[in-house]
Structure formats: C-alpha cells, structure tokens
Amino acid sequence: MDQDTLKMQVAAAALQSVSDHPDELLVLGIGTGSTAEHFIQGLKTIRHRVDTTVSSSERSASLLREMGFSVTDLNAVPRVDIYIDGADEANEQLHLIKGGGAALTREKIVAAVAERFICIADESKRVDTLGAFPLPVEVIPMARSHVARELVKLGGQPVWREGTITDNGNVILDVHGLNIASPIELERQINDMTGVVCNGLFALRPADELLLGTPEGVLRLTV
Ligand code: 5RP
Predict the structure, then answer these.
(1) 13, 28, 105, 145: which is deepest, by most CB within 10 A?
(2) Which of 16, 76, 73 is nearest to 46 (CA)?
(3) Cα(89)–Cα(121) distance, rounded to whole angstroms?
(4) What is the rounded distance in angstroms from the CA atom of residue 125 to the CA atom of residue 127?
C-alpha cells in the first residue's frame, strides 16, 4: 500500500471520529499538508455537522472556501472543538515535529485553542526519538543569522529554507542533526531565543490522539 493511500485511509478514520463527536454542530480546526488535504476533500460528506472552520494556512483556507465551507478568524470563534492535522514525526508520547509545510506557527496556535487535537499520519511518521526530520523554526527575517548561530550552540545544523516566506511574513530554518531526547525542554529553549517566532516541536501541547495509517488498518494511539 503506498503512502498516499495510507494518508487517505487515516483521513477517513478522522472523519469518522469527527462524526462520532456528541455535539451536533462543530467548529473544526483544519491543518495543512497532503494528509490534511485528504481530510478536507472528505469533509463534504459531513458538511451538515460543520458550523465553521478555522484554518492553519492560507492554502487550506482557500481549499475550504472552494468547497463551500466558511473559514472564520480564530479570534471570532468561541472555541475549536477538534483540530485535525498531519505531522512530520510523532513519538509514543504524541510529541510531534511539524512545519514541513511552513505552517507551524498557525498550526501551534490552533492546536493551543483546540479542545481535542487529532493528528493524522501514515506509519512512516512514527519514531522512537524525534529529530531525524529537520526541525523547522520560524524566525523574524532580520534575526535569521543570530538564531542560526544560537541553534548551532545547541548542536544543530540550521539550513535556511530559501525562497520560503511563511503566511506570517517570516523565514524558516530547518535544523538538522538534533537528537531530541527531551522535546519539552528543547521546545522551551528554542522558544526563548530572541527572534524565534515558533518552533516545530509540539511537545508542550502534544496531540491528544494519533491516528496512524498502516497496511493492516488504522492504529489509534493516545497517552
Ligand atoms: C505543515 C505540517 C504538515 O502537517 C506536515 O508537514 C505533514 O505533511 P503531510 O501530511 O503532507 O505529510 O506540519 O506545516
């Protein structure tokens, strides 16, 4: 079974979880990336359950609008019932690395608000220790070199994702070579660097549930 089929399978499982929610009308947080886009494509099947959506990127917002869903500013919704999004890596504690699609800051904000965060991924994203996937860090453009030097002090090799500007007008450094034994501590340490907007570690606010697509079916992991 190829990776895209596994992503589709896990998106379908997430749609079922949303359908099973006890409330009739839901405010849904929608993430970014190919797995999230499979979820968006399937959302029409449960349109009657969606009050409105909030989106973690301009790209997902456009897709949602094209499909006739309303997309509301996060500041204008009273709550987010469920946030559905993919990940680049996930460990057993449901700590994640995200930001492969450069949407990490808005993703982290929506996850912070959400009552329940369901992460959807194919099984290749499951790891024992985070860090094989380079950690994305969103940085204010004028602080790029300063933050890069600070990240080198932590043992990483930051690489500027040239040509990428985030929806917030910032740049991304992808940090290679980090062996992330203490994700919560590292998330805080990188957040503390002047000029950093956000980093792609989701450990202070991990997923509540991880749905993993495997050839044997969908695995549901919680902590
Ligand atoms: C975007 C993300 C995505 O969730 C992550 O990159 C996974 O993408 P995909 O579902 O395409 O594998 O964090 O910023």
Answers:
(1) 28
(2) 16
(3) 9
(4) 6
Query: What is residue 47's DSSP assignment?
Result: G
Report the nearest atom of ligand 1 relative to the CA of 100: 6
**DSSP β-bridge partners for residue 112:** none
Residues 96, 90 contacting (CB under 8 angstroms):
yes
Q: Which of 107, 138, 150, 187 is catalytic?
A: 107
DSSP 134: P
* In the predicted structure, residue 162 carries a pLDDT above the cut 90: yes
> What is the Cα–Cα distance from 184 to 201, expressed in whole angstroms?
8
Helical axes 58-66 vs 34-42, angle rounded to 10°? 20
Q: What is the pLDDT of residue 1?
A: 83
Distance 83 CA to ligand 1 centre (A): 14
Per residue in 51-81, pLDDT (tens digit) is 999 999 999 999 999 999 999 999 999 999 9
Q: Which atom of ligand 1 is nearest to the CA of 36?
A: 10
Q: Are 109 and 202 a contacting pair, CB within 8 Å?
A: no
Q: Give the global pTM.
A: 0.96
